[in-house]
Design brief:
globular; 8 strands; 2 domains; SH3 type barrels; 2 helices
Length: 122
C-alpha cells in the first residue's frame, strides 16, 4: 500500500492520478510512479517534481520494465495492471502481442505497492 505521507498527484488536464510526491524529510519531494518507482535520483522542490510527473503522464506504464525475480535475475516485463495496492506485470516476451487472448500472456507476477523489484529496462 502506498505510504500515507506520499501525496497523490493528479494530472492538471483531467484529474487522473499519475503518480505521487514522496517526501524526502528535508522539505523536498521525489516524483514516483503509481507503483512507487522513483522518477529521479534525488528530491527537489515540489514544482519541479510536478513538472516531472506532468511531463511523463502515464507513459511509463507502456514502457518495458525489468523485474528482479526470486533468484536475483532481471527479466523483461510489461505492466498489465496497477493500483495503490498492487502492480501486475507479465513476461514481455509474450505480453505485448496484439489480439492475444489474456490466458496466453506470459507469466504474470503480482507485487505489492510500493515495490523495489521493478526498474526501467536497462
Amino acid at each position: 500500500m502506498i505510504p500515507p505521507d506520499w501525496v497523490p498527484y493528479h494530472r492538471t488536464d483531467d484529474n487522473e492520478l499519475i503518480g505521487y510526491l514522496q517526501p524526502t524529510g528535508d522539505g523536498n519531494v521525489i516524483p514516483v510512479t503509481l507503483f512507487g518507482h522513483p522518477l529521479a535520483a534525488e528530491g527537489g522542490e515540489e514544482w519541479w517534481a510536478v513538472d516531472v510527473l506532468e511531463g511523463l503522464g502515464l507513459s511509463y506504464l507502456a514502457d518495458t520494465w525489468e523485474l528482479r525475480d526470486d533468484d536475483g535475475n532481471w527479466i523483461r516485463v510489461v505492466i498489465n495492471e496497477c493500483d495503490s495496492h498492487q502492480v501486475v506485470v507479465a513476461n514481455a516476451d509474450f505480453a505485448k502481442l496484439v489480439d492475444r487472448p489474456t490466458e496466453m500472456y506470459g507469466d504474470r507476477v503480482t507485487l505489492p505497492v510500493p515495490t523495489d523489484r521493478l526498474r526501467p529496462r536497462q
